[in-house]
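2024-03-11 09:14:02 INFO worker-7 job=invfold-0412 stage=load source=structure_tokens
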């Protein structure tokens, strides 16, 4: 769904049907000690970019709303881990590097003889 910042995020949800006014980040809400979400945090969040770059089903994201001083420095801290290797992922846009190492990607013509 499109966030208030204009990017597509799989964790953002809004409902304005029949007078409802509900907006939420399901990733922050479901993360332990995720904090309190506000719509302005969507513009500072890296999760839409991560979701666009990496569609690995083994990637697990957790997000925490960071508090700022007098409204300055607010943001979203994102941590990631891999279910397959059970280790933290340093660069979630790329992934752990182990989940897809056995896939065979061939480009061009089929090398098998006809």
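2024-03-11 09:14:09 INFO worker-7 stage=emit residues=114
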């Amino acid at each position: 769904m499109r966030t208030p910042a204009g990017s597509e995020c799989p964790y953002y949800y809004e409902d304005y049907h029949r007078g409802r006014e509900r907006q939420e980040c399901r990733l922050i809400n479901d993360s332990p000690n995720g904090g309190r979400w506000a719509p302005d945090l969507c513009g500072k969040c890296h999760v839409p970019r991560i979701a666009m770059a990496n569609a690995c089903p083994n990637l697990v994201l957790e997000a925490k709303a960071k508090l700022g001083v007098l409204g300055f420095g607010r943001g979203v801290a994102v941590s990631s881990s891999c279910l397959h290797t059970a280790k933290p992922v340093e660069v979630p846009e790329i992934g752990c590097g182990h989940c897809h190492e056995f896939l065979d990607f061939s480009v061009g013509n089929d090398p098998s003889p006809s």
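2024-03-11 09:14:09 INFO worker-7 stage=report msg="The mean pLDDT is 88."
2024-03-11 09:14:10 INFO worker-7 job finished
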